[in-house]
């Protein structure tokens, strides 16, 4: 049973969704940065997909040079603030910290990073100058981490950039997907506003690029196009009863939660289907929304879940329980969901085998599908000559150029869905690919 009471006000919501990594004070940042050993060939740098010079920015914080620290971070990663909060640091930079070898708590790199970048975002301090105007123009489709990172880097290289975003706010899944105890809407949007002010790219909201005619218009107007559209909605399971009231995608649930906060409807008994990070987030968030019981149901054993173990631990700590080796066969109910019928599995040579006559019903009034996001294949087929692989990911060469040479891409649409830091890292490289293309190299 979850320890959280259903929040009925914004203040109660904020208390239940208290930041996992709260901002450090100056004193905390000073003491934490003092612990850094400034390792030669620091393993944390290699573990960060954007290769931030971590020992350098930590030393700059320790010297009281916060602007220098923020500049070091942003030079490698335009989503430096978001990443400081949302990166799975346990698996990346902090997981590589040499202190782990001596059973000492690793340096809190993510929090130090968020501390330094927060200061310049608040002070609106300009740290970068855009490049000399090249006279070339680039359209960026999607204002998520990939699109905005590409826009910043392209402006550094002197190209004019227009970003077309389908929704009313920037930052992609940092606003519509990531758990609110990692990053608030305000923090996500403020970082993009800071970057836009610094780099002067144009952002056009509520402007979805919807089909062949839109792509052809962009091709006529712009010298190159960057696709940063991410993935699509939650995939369905294909079992009877999925259309019942009370069944929804975990991603779509999180999107409502990010916008409506305490006014988000949540069931009393929630079953989350899936074993990935989105399923864990949806379970932790349902608990914090005051659901009486939250069950994560997964087809295989705990060791085979796609989720990071720390995300599973957080869901359990929030009050979720887990059911392993069960496959949902039907969503039950008369109009609205009343339960899920499962069958138990055993694993034989890596394959799942249903155990005969092991069906049982788990009652619930809400089902969240953590079954992964689909790809925007139908839309991408409208770009002439654009190849997709068998999983629906956009095919690129080493310069992040697609098989239609005017188009480049990065982030979830290309990598199939990883993390914010991967989108930021790839988009920076893609912008350099576009730069070489525009220079005729
Ligand atoms: C529930 C959930 C939780 C997550 N939690 C974390 C986390 O804690 N830490 C982490 O690092 N990563 C997390 N991720 C992954 C991370 O959010 C993504 O890897 C990252 O946002 C990918 O960036 P992107 O720019 O490629 O795509 P997105 O963030 O999806 O951005 C794509 C943008 O393109 C826009 N768009 C789409 N189609 C069109 C169109 N046709 N025309 C115009 N605009 C369009 C979208 O509205 C969106 O703004 C999470 C993902 C999910 C689903
Ligand atoms: S971007 Fe992420 S992985 Fe890289 S140093 Fe910052 S918090 Fe760590």
Could you name the key traits of this structure?
single chain, 441 residues, alpha/beta, Fumarate Reductase Iron-sulfur Protein, Chain B, domain 2, FAD/NAD(P)-binding domain, 3 domains, five-stranded parallel β-sheet, 18 helices, 14 strands, 38% helix, globular, binds flavin-adenine dinucleotide, binds iron/sulfur cluster
Low-pLDDT runs:
none
The small molecules bound here are:
flavin-adenine dinucleotide, iron/sulfur cluster
Q: What is the CATH architecture annotation of the largest domain?
A: 3-Layer(bba) Sandwich
Shape: globular
Query: Which oligomerization state do the chains in this entry correspond to?
Result: single chain
Please provide the count of β strands.
Answer: 14
Placed side by side, the strands forming the largest sheet appear as 3-2-1-4-14
Question: In CATH, what is the class of the largest domain?
Answer: Alpha Beta
The count of helical stretches stands at 18
CATH level 4 superfamily of the largest domain: FAD/NAD(P)-binding domain
């Amino acid at each position: 049973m979850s320890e959280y009471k259903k929040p009925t006000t914004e203040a109660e919501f904020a208390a239940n969704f208290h930041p996992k990594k709260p901002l450090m004070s100056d004193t905390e940042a000073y003491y934490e940065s003092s612990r850094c050993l400034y390792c030669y060939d620091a393993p944390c740098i290699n573990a960060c997909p954007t290769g931030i010079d971590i020992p350098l920015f930590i030393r700059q914080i320790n010297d009281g040079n916060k602007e220098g620290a923020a500049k070091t971070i942003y030079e490698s990663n335009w989503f430096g603030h978001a990443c400081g909060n949302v990166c799975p640091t346990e698996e990346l930079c902090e997981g590589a910290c040499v202190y782990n070898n001596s059973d000492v708590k690793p340096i809190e790199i993510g929090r130090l990073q968020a501390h330094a970048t927060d200061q310049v975002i608040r002070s609106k301090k300009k740290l970068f100058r855009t490049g000399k105007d090249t006279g070339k123009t680039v359209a960026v489709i999607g204002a998520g981490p990939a699109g905005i990172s590409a826009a910043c880097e392209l402006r550094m290289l002197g190209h004019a950039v227009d970003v077309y975003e389908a929704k009313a706010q920037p930052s992609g899944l940092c606003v519509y997907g990531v758990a609110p105890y990692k990053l608030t809407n305000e923090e996500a949007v403020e970082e993009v506003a800071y970057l836009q002010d610094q780099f002067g790219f144009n952002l056009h909201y509520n402007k979805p690029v919807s089909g062949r005619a839109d792509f052809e218009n962009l091709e006529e107007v712009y010298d190159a196009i960057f696709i940063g559209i991410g993935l699509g909605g939650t995939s369905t399971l294909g079992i009877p009863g999925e259309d019942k009231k009370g069944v929804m995608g975990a991603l779509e649930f999180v999107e409502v939660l990010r916008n409506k906060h305490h006014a988000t409807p949540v069931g009393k008994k929630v079953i989350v289907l899936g074993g990935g990070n989105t399923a864990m987030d949806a379970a932790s968030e349902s608990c914090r929304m005051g659901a009486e019981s939250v069950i994560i149901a997964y087809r295989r054993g705990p060791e085979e879940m796609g989720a990071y173990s720390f995300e599973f631990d957080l869901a359990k700590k929030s009050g979720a329980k887990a059911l392993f080796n069960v496959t949902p066969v039907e969503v039950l109910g008369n109009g609205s969901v009343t339960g899920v019928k499962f069958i138990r599995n055993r694993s034989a040579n890596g394959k799942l085998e249903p155990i005969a006559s092991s069906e049982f019903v788990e009652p619930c009034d809400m089902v969240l599908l953590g079954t992964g996001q689909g790809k925007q294949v139908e839309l991408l087929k409208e770009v002439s000559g654009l190849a997709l692989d068998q999983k629906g990911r956009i095919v690129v060469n080493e310069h992040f150029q697609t098989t239609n040479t005017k188009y480049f891409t990065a982030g979830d649409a290309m990598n199939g869905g990883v993390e914010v830091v991967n989108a930021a890292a790839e988009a920076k490289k893609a912008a350099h690919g576009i730069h070489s293309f525009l220079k005729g190299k």
